Amino acid sequence: MTETVEQILEQYIPQNKLTEVKRILYGHSSTPLGIEYEDKNFEVKGWQMLSRVHEELRAPRLIRVGLIQHSIVAPTTDSIQNQRDAIYNKVKSYIVQAAQYNVNILCLQEAWPMPFAFCTREKYPWCEFAEDAETGPTTVFLSELAKKYNMVIVSPILERDSVDGDTIWNTSVVINIDGTVLGKHRKNHIPRIGDFNESTYYMEGNTGHPVFDTPFARIAINICYGRHHPLNWLMFGLNGAEIVFNPSATIQGLSEHLWPIEARCAAIANSYYTCAINRVGTENFANEFTSGDGKPAHNDFGFFYGSSYITAPDGSRTPSLNRHKDGLLVGELDLNMCRHVKDIWGFRMTQRLDMYAKELAEYVSKRDGKQD
């Protein structure tokens, strides 16, 4: 059973060559934080990602982020209340550990308090998980923890917008250190591939590309499928993000070869940190569903392969969390690196945004003209 690529490398690459292999694959090595823990179901890994530039006039801006990946707990045939409460209880214990490691900003995986039931196309019971972003039970639950631990928490949920006719959205709620809701972002890009039947429940978001000015860093959230769209990443950078979280739910066989690349490329292209979070395990449902590809009906969506990781603006990245276990990844980041990389590489300075905007406008105009 493959756990991580790093473990395979360490098992088969001679030690005298391993350091060079990792340098080529991952860039400058991250320094362990010395907080490793592992049992049969859960692991904690911690890495420090420091800038290689030492300034005379500015001190490092060090903060700690935490990423939590996890499986569901109760069977999908249990009551909605039992399923959600079981996840709450498990994830609360992980958040407590994150607080013990002095995490400032914590991000959970896409649709974290529920199974990823969108594959089924069944409206009920799954729509019962939808809740108000500001006052729903998940936000209330996490607000208490955010306030208790002086922690910003990014909570991706299924949102029910009662102000707009009970519309449902795939939403990430940003909860501030005082327990109040700092803001929210709705998923910009909705997949239409295989069993990703998400447009059965919600459509593209209407919040644009917000960046949230937290007490620790300027952050943004690029939800799941948005990582396949480079311009989506670009806009968060143009709006001032220093860290972009990518809470996801993605499966083996479809995207795993893309997973280590996309968030890392975005960090390089936009001179910010990226944090990619994926859920873990296989979730089984009572009723069979099909993918519309002629293959037999099935009761599970596939294997969520975890493998959460962090990439720095210079392109270096941490090793991944496990493919099979729940995990907490802690990253100590120097936010000054965002500016250092901009100075050294000049990507922002050498962008041709005016040219891109002109040609994009021309392309859209021609395309829309052809459709008329």
TrEMBL record:
<dbReference type="InterPro" id="IPR036526">
    <property type="entry name" value="C-N_Hydrolase_sf"/>
</dbReference>
<feature type="domain" description="CN hydrolase">
    <location>
        <begin position="63"/>
        <end position="335"/>
    </location>
</feature>
<dbReference type="InterPro" id="IPR003010">
    <property type="entry name" value="C-N_Hydrolase"/>
</dbReference>
<dbReference type="GO" id="GO:0033396">
    <property type="term" value="P:beta-alanine biosynthetic process via 3-ureidopropionate"/>
</dbReference>
<protein>
    <recommendedName>
        <fullName>Beta-ureidopropionase</fullName>
        <ecNumber>3.5.1.6</ecNumber>
    </recommendedName>
</protein>
<dbReference type="GO" id="GO:0003837">
    <property type="term" value="F:beta-ureidopropionase activity"/>
</dbReference>
<comment type="similarity">
    <text>Belongs to the carbon-nitrogen hydrolase superfamily. BUP family.</text>
</comment>
<keyword id="KW-0378">Hydrolase</keyword>
<dbReference type="InterPro" id="IPR050345">
    <property type="entry name" value="Aliph_Amidase/BUP"/>
</dbReference>
<dbReference type="Pfam" id="PF00795">
    <property type="entry name" value="CN_hydrolase"/>
</dbReference>
<comment type="pathway">
    <text>Amino-acid biosynthesis; beta-alanine biosynthesis.</text>
</comment>
